[in-house]
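User: My collaborator sent over this chain with a note saying "see what the structure looks like." That's all I know about it. Can you take a look?
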Amino acid sequence: MPPHTPESTSHFDLAALRSDMSESRAAVRVVLETFAPWLTDTRQQLRAAIESAEAEPLGRVAHRLRGALAQLRAAPAVALVKKLEAHCKANPEACLSRDHALLAELDAELDALAAEVAAQLEALRR
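Assistant: Without extra context I'll predict from the sequence alone. Here is the result:
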């Protein structure tokens, strides 16, 4: 299976990432190999921040997440994390509840992104 084309990639822009990496397949693979476990760890931190019911820790994790997602060119997830950050800044005393629609939407997007990154890694390792 060849790596996804930009048209079939819906959760991050592989073509832009390749361009950022000077078209180096090896560099793209390293970025994705680094990103995959980082995302798992950061999602755990995000869940812990949500459980803490404090907006400030949630905002910090969201900010780190947004930066990494932007580097990966994961526009759909970046847009959701920006909304989360904005909420945290606008409501420093009120954290989102675990069942808030934005958190569910972000979780689903991050699941899809993780699956797409895994598929790309599999293709790049061939």
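A starting point for your reply to your collaborator: Residues 12-123 form a domain with the Four Helix Bundle (Hemerythrin (Met), subunit A) fold (CATH 1.20.120).
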